[in-house]
């Protein structure tokens, strides 16, 4: 029998026992990146956290019994602006394709180095894909279908080439939630937020865009609802469309037989805490109205912010490090480990000191545990993760394995958790290479220094010490007569 999972649910604001709609197909959707620039290490947090959840679900319910959808947002005004800036000489659509294609490729290379499972690691030929990474631009038809349903049900209206979602009309439909209930915002709060930027074509300041007209410089598709001019989707609609397409529609027939009330609902929806409002509130509004259901997903999980000096790391504040630049100084596994030392709902302060500590622990574990091949999660590790992904507890259990000398088991767990990606030898070689240090050369110099000291040749011994210092190596003569060395950062 599967271990019982408990997950904190933003919908209920409590940690609840997780009950899948269909234990043979547990379904997870996570909002992915907008691809116009290098992802920063804050963007990596949901990727790593939900990778861990995916691994856990696969372990608990079976590899064939979990479907994971993580989308790529490749239509957005920030992408258009970047394309116009960087490729002014290309036709605009081509420029957009270059920007999104390059950024997506870079994103994949970056997160692969973080030990994150990729679709090609999971999907098997001839079987249902269990990990889908859909692009928004490949789901415009589904978006149009949902927008059409919303107009038909009276929850959306057309104005000046736009389609807008009507919050007031939503509230007149039966069987749908209260708008604002998910993010716990009162009508007054919603209204004062919406008044900041009121467009003239909106009937009500709270209404939000499902579809908008495209200018000559924008990517454009045929519009829904008989709007003659071409347009492009708003932000929120893409996730309603992609989750429906890949998590609900594909399994509708089977679910309809098993549990008719489960139609249009999937199990877990994830993302960063900043997405609770408006993005997830609006996804829920769209999906519930279009599909006549009180819920879009049963469990909503949100990771806390990765912060720098108390502030959210973000592109707009400019206080960010890209994954790519961090990977030049640190192995990806150190970044992954450092991320998991903090529980996913807590803020993380990202510091060099934290990275150094993480690297030290991994150095020790890789040396002791790195030679085997076994891959499995021990019961106590599963138990820790089953408690709302308690990664600090998980790390304490890994430390306990180390303390007990159970190093093969430690290695097996590390491998199952996305560590020891290339084996211990490769880890060491890469680490030394990234520090521009050749350990054999250091050992030889230390040997020569020892001989010089034995011969009381202090000038030579000092010269060698300076040579080592120039290599960034600090030599320590211990009381017991041994000499050790470490790298100064
Ligand atoms: N500092 C952060 N800590 C944790 N998660 C974050 C952080 N910044 C963004 N995210 C998450 O990263 C994911 C990708 O978001 P997206 O590509 O829209 O980035 P973004 O919000 O534009 O980044 P920024 O805030 O820097 O502009 C989302 O789930 C978002 O919640
Ligand atoms: Zn989304």
How do the strands and helices of this protein lay out in sequence?
Elements lengths: L5 E4 L4 E4 L8 E5 L13 H18 L4 E5 L6 H10 L5 H22 L5 H4 L8 E2 L7 H13 L3 E4 L2 E4 L1 H4 L16 H8 L13 E6 L17 E3 L3 H12 L3 H7 L7 E7 L3 H16 L5 E7 L2 E3 L2 E2 L10 H7 L2 H9 L7 E2 L2 H18 L9 H8 L4 H13 L3 H10 L6 H12 L4 H16 L3 H13 L2 E5 L5 E5 L2
Helix pairs in contact: 2-3, 5-8, 5-10, 8-10, 12-13, 13-16, 13-17, 14-15, 18-19
The structure holds adenosine-5'-triphosphate and zinc ion (ZN).
Index terms:
binds adenosine-5'-triphosphate; alpha/beta; elongated; 489 residues; 19 helices; binds zinc ion
CATH superfamily of the largest domain: HUPs
Number of helices: 19
Average pLDDT: 93
- How much helix is in the residues? 40-55%
Report how far apart the termini are.
49 Å
- List all distinct small molecules, including ions and cofactors, that are bound in this structure: adenosine-5'-triphosphate, zinc ion
Q: What would you call the shape?
A: elongated
Would you count the extended β strands for me? 16
Q: What is Rg?
A: 26 Å
CATH top level label of the largest domain: Alpha Beta
CATH architecture of the largest domain: 3-Layer(aba) Sandwich
Keywords: Aminoacyl-tRNA synthetase, ATP-binding, Cytoplasm, Ligase, Metal-binding, Nucleotide-binding, Protein biosynthesis, Zinc
GO molecular function: ATP binding; cysteine-tRNA ligase activity; zinc ion binding
Cofactor: Zn(2+)
Binding site for ATP: 315
